[in-house]
Amino acid sequence: MATKGNAGRKKGSVSFTQVSLRALNRSLKEDAVVTVSRKFAEVLNLTGNLCSHDEQLKSTEAEELLEDSPPVEVKVNENW
Amino acid sequence: MTTTTMMDKLFPAIIGQEAAKRKLKFYIEGFEATSICPHLMFVAPKGAGKTTLAKAFARNLKDRHEDKPKRFLEINCATIKNLKQFMNEIVVTHMIDRDATILFDEASELPKSVTMALLTILNPNKDNMTTFSYEDYTFDCDFRRLSFLFATTESHQIFHALLDRMDRVDLEEYSHDDLAKIMEVSVEKIKFKSDVLAQIAPTLRGNARAAQKLSQKIDIFCGRKRSREFGADDWKKLKKTLDILPLGLTRIEMSLLRYLSNGPRRLTNLSAKMGMTKAALQRDMEMYLQKMELIEILPAGRALTGIGQEYLKDFKKWFK
What we know:
The structure holds two protein chains of two kinds.
Chain A (H helix, E strand, L loop, with lengths): L20 H7 L10 H6 L9 H16 L5 E4 L3
Chain B lengths: L2 H8 L7 H17 L5 E4 L6 H9 L12 E6 L6 H13 L4 E6 L6 H10 L7 E6 L2 E6 L3 E7 L7 H5 L2 E4 L5 H11 L4 E2 L3 H5 L7 H17 L4 E2 L1 H10 L9 H10 L6 H8 L3 H14 L3 E4 L2 E4 L1 H13 L2
Parallel strand pairs in B: 1-6, 1-7, 2-3, 3-6, 8-9
Antiparallel strand pairs in B: 4-5, 10-11
Helix pairs in contact in B: 7-9
């Protein structure tokens, strides 16, 4: 049976890398928010805000866009 | 005080637009009594004076504590990229705990996220107050302190629910008399002789901004010849120099008319001949030519009307 060309996960979307918690702590502040898999959080009885991979990407893109975008053009007349 | 004098006082230097001015006068009187102005959407073609009229209106919305107009913010909506930017640069900086009149110019360019936020912020209610929360901020919007004006040429592109929260102020087309007055007001130091303004007005395409722009050119023209008068001979010279055609047509529109003088043509054929896309022809050329009844669309294609044929015949005498 022929398969759809765009079906399935993208290449690399289920790739992981192993790092020590110490290495991670060196890079991140104590209250930094990190994304972990929902299943992993459930096993450790951790709760957090549920977010999809897409949403996370979109919010990062929006942040980057905001930093790069020029300021809003506003003319202010105080005494007129 | 007579109605005309009152209108002149409320909207000095605003020519024409009597129906819109009557409506706005009603809102000003309402604001004076209640400190509340409905959210207004100014709709008109480009160059018709939406922003100018909105500003003139805003001057009448006085500060509660001082006898002067409220602070006035003019925002170019095309430069707002997202809700976060809107909240940080507009709401937090200019609106929280402040009195102001805010004009959202080019309102059709508002991003969807900001439009959705405005649905909450502008929702009319009996308390005349709304609350909008975003991340760490809670923005209490008091309609006694903040007045909202919007301006657009593309009202159909505004989200219907947002449009529903506003009162529309539609501007009408300027008559030739209005355009002549706009020109006179724009260059007060120049005296227009005899009926020269009546000759100029039809070339302005009903557009107030075009009248102002041409006034500036007349000012330059008179400055160069060290005169404060502008007559029929001056107009003859200026229209030749600036290549101003009857009814304010462009040279491309003129080419289109000449091409149609050979008989009806299909849009595809016209597009190929003129080297323009069909959409550009329809949007930029045909609308005005049809409005002036110079061309018509027949089953056989685009065709010159009787008025169009007369136009081409009379054109030979235009620069003489």
